[in-house]
Model the fold of this input.
Amino acid sequence: MKRYCPYLLLSVLLLPLMAAAALRPGPLVGGWSPIKDPKDQHVVEIGQFAVSEYNSQSKTQLKFQQVVKGETQVVSGTNYRLVLAAKDGTTAKNYEAVVWEKPWEHFKNLTSFKPVN
Done:
């Protein structure tokens, strides 16, 4: 009886599993996916949280206007990378905010907030 290479056998067994995973619908863990509706209530709440948290941390008084666009990333929870319109006095500017959320723990964390050129 011939002895088969264990790597060949392993690759033959894993190939159908890898193909099924590649064809599976849904977000790719670790990859960014566009937000289809930036006016979705939860997305707006994340944007409002980002501006409020930034104001608390930096002692500013930005006023949230709207979510312009955004992306989500599946991690241990969800990262939201949003482009937000906010007013600083009378001047409206766009900012990029990243918020990490774990809804099952009622946890949100602003991980970055910066002006967009």
